[in-house]
Amino acid sequence: MTAVHEAKAAAATTIAPHGGTLINRFANEAEAASLRSKAANLPVIELDARQISDIELIATGAASPLQGFLTRSDYHSVVHDLRLANGLPWSIPITLAVTAEKSKELKLDGDAALVSPSGVLVAIITVRDIYTYDREAEAANVYGTTEQAHPGVASLYSQPEILVGGEITVLELPVHDDFPEYYLSPAQTRAVFAERGWQTVVGFQTRNPVHRAHEYLQKVALEMVDGLLLHPLVGQTKGDDIPADVRMR
Known about the structure:
Elements: H1 3-13, H2 29-39, E1 44-46, H3 49-60, E2 68-69, H4 72-81, E3 96-98, H5 100-103, E4 111-115, E5 121-126, E6 129-132, H6 135-143, H7 151-157, E7 162-170, H8 186-196, E8 201-206, H9 212-222, E9 227-232, H10 244-248
Parallel strand pairs: 1-4, 8-9
Antiparallel strand pairs: 2-7, 3-7, 4-5, 5-7, 6-7
Helix pairs in contact: 1-8, 6-7
């Protein structure tokens, strides 16, 4: 079998993305030009760093099968049943929170411009739902605590009071100039697996340097699979975490 055939075989046998389809929510060139013109007359929602990261996960398919921020039915199903409304396992809501004042500017089935703090147009959201939510219920069910000492709970409690759900179309994401050679989208990662002929892969995600217990687990896993994907978290982490540049090195 040639290397090309091996790569195609690996691509065909690697497990399907969560939900069955690898989502891509980027606008093509023609769509982007049209949306940029349209955005000038749309309500504007300013994003924080976490929301921009969520948009990147959705756009690249890392949050497949989500095509946008959760609507009410999916949100309540995730919080109470750890599943999307269609029954697919999902444990943490990906939501877009806005103030009550901002929500009054939005219309169901209308669009809104999602911009970075510096005013860059990141994406367009088609508003499918506008709803209130119970922060304490989400904290208790998702994080297992309502104590603000938990960073996830603290972040949740600091959010505005209204959630907006709907699919997004992405025009521009932040450029990652830290470790650019390691930033691979899910599609790019799958291509690397295929090039290497990997059909079975174990992923190891960590927010700390790999230590001996991690090393042991990885070596055991590599006795049973073709390859290892080491997946360190970067970006916003806990204040006392070891810096990303140290972990990457």
